[in-house]
Amino acid sequence: MFGRIASALAWLAFARALTGQQAQDAATKRGACDCLNWAGVYYDHLAMCGRGKELHFLSKYGFTAAYAATEPIAGLPHKVCNDFFKNLKNNSCVNVDLLALSDEADNAVAMGDDNMTDKQWCYVSNDCPVASLNGGDYATNMMGFQLGGWNNLASTSNLSWKICDPVADASYMLKYKTVQELIDIGTESDVGLSRLIRLAYPVVAITWAEVSFKMQAINDAWTTGADLATLVDGLPVPPATFTRAAEVHTTISDIIKSGQATILDTPGHGDNFHVIKGREAWSVTRNGLGNMIYLSGHFSMEFDVTCLMGCATTRLEALDLETQ
Length: 324
What we know:
Blueprint: H1 2-29, H2 38-43, H3 56-59, H4 65-68, H5 75-84, E1 94-95, H6 105-110, E2 120-124, E3 137-138, H7 145-150, E4 160-163, H8 179-189, H9 193-198, E5 203-204, H10 212-221, H11 228-233, H12 243-258, E6 262-264, E7 273-277, E8 280-286, H13 290-296, E9 303-309
Parallel strand pairs: 5-6
Antiparallel strand pairs: 1-2, 2-4, 3-4, 6-7, 7-8, 8-9
């Protein structure tokens, strides 16, 4: 009898030790402030898409985020939440604002700038200290804070959200990914590449037509071992009397030399646009069969992302290493 009790106690002690070790291992693998997998968050009902920052591009103009997820979502909100975020099997930091225009004064006024244009965010555990949220906050739970208020109940949040740190979270931030890396992420999760790129890179209110000749000149002058900054600085500068041309030249030159991938916007901020990164130039264009592709649910195939110039692609070729 006593032997059985002793064995049972020993087993309980071992089980507790094992559980504690597993918890410690889990904490080591994922810190409280690490970004959570987007699709996993919604699948586990830890957040309701629209009550966080998913629809910030609407809520900044007065669209009530607290009610966003309770309304029949259609159009762009539906595509952002149902087609994109709920399928994104990735824990990257994405743009707070879908239309993340650069901080140029004119653009900021036109787009209702609220100091979020260059910020990226993600969901994190409630155990993440407030100071580490970098201006983030608690996210509303499934029922919403306002519903708890109506019933005079204490409402708690399942998760928090944070503004990602450009240094500590650099490896998670989509803005630092290459275009090819974004294509791979989008293909893996089967989400729209146009929207993924929109939620990754900053945007400048300059069109491809204003930049294409400059990118072509860089591409034509490029040689192995050339220095990009020196090449860009050596390009002809438009006369100051051509105000717009001079502004575009200065802005684009800085963007090219920075190496930050940037979207060249289109009228109406549409889904078709161009991206430049260093001397690379990419086009994002909806496939001719886009409607059928979208209806079939293969979202990553709806848009074609094509390198136009300056891209060093990796090709795997079959090599015959046998000797005769």
